[in-house]
DNA sequence: TTGAATGCAAAAAATTTGCATATTG
DNA sequence: CAATATGCAAATTTTTTGCATTCAA
């Protein structure tokens, strides 16, 4: 992966310590809500960053494609590094159960999106909703 | 698909006119945020329902598996009928572009989830995030 | 009846925005 | 320097809760 500063500059943005720290925190946490990320940043030794800066940093990093986010639980976006080795979340609408699966299960979907639209899908950490075996039987 | 009242009762819940109207509004709208759904319900001729009731009704209907929701734009869950004939959303993290594709592109993924977990995935209206062709080139 | 559901209004979250000030390039 | 980013605090927006009241079963 290339240099953060260069990537930011390529988009007319600037490299700041806050952005570096937010990015580091996301990588360190694996997954985290904006609030958790803010806490992690505050705990890295430096001064705390304001909530708005965390939001703005995450937005900037998302535009660069460096971080992504998912809505596993509906209230609370969870951010992660785009390149983080990952899984796919499977969320049950009935009981809230959350399962994980290797990304390979979505390989074909990703390939099709690339073929048809030239779209680079980031399925890592994506959440697929539905009903788990138990709820599925209970609801039929 | 069975009767709404029976389904609710099977879960110890009750059939109310508000729940019927919320369900009807979701079906009529196709897609809608809780707020839009509340407006649609208010416009159906009956009395307006309170926001909290809309939230509670959507939650109840989701538990039954009758409605689902997606986060196309991150702020604002969009609800839809689980059975509504639909598409898959493709959302670009860079520019916000939203595309649509037939559900078939995810057939294999759905089949795998069923095989491996007995999970009934509702990929309809699901949103796959990533970078569109344009942003992809701009960011590389 | 009896417990579940509703309506309201108040309370919480979770974000976003305006602006003066500090920084990067 | 000029333009972008940050910090704060205030303003929004979105959801959730407490409770008295109403309604379904």
What does this 3D model show about the protein?
Two copies of one chain form a homodimer. Chain A is an alpha+beta fold and 140 residues long. Helices cover 42% and strands 19% of the residues of chain A. Chain A folds into two domains: 2-83, Winged helix-like DNA-binding domain superfamily/Winged helix DNA-binding domain (Arc Repressor Mutant, subunit A); 86-139, Dna Ligase, domain 1. Chain A is built from six helices and six strands. A three-stranded mixed β-sheet of chain A has the order 4-3-6. In chain A, strands 1-2 form a two-stranded antiparallel ribbon. In chain A, a hairpin with a 5-residue loop joins strand 3 (87-92) and strand 4 (98-102). The longest helix of chain A is centred in the first third of the chain and has 13 residues, at 17-29. The A-B interface holds A 7, 10-11, 62-65, 68-69, 71, 74, 77, 90, 92-94, 99, 101, 105-106, 108-109, 112-113, 116-123, 126, 128-133, 135-136, 139 and B 7, 62-65, 68-69, 71, 74, 77, 90, 92-94, 99, 101, 105-106, 108-109, 112-113, 116-123, 126, 128-133, 135-136, 138-139. Strand 5 of chain A pairs antiparallel with strand 6 of chain B. Chain A binds a DNA duplex (25 and 25 nucleotides) through residues 9, 12-16, 18-19, 33-35, 49-53, 55-57, 60, 75-76.
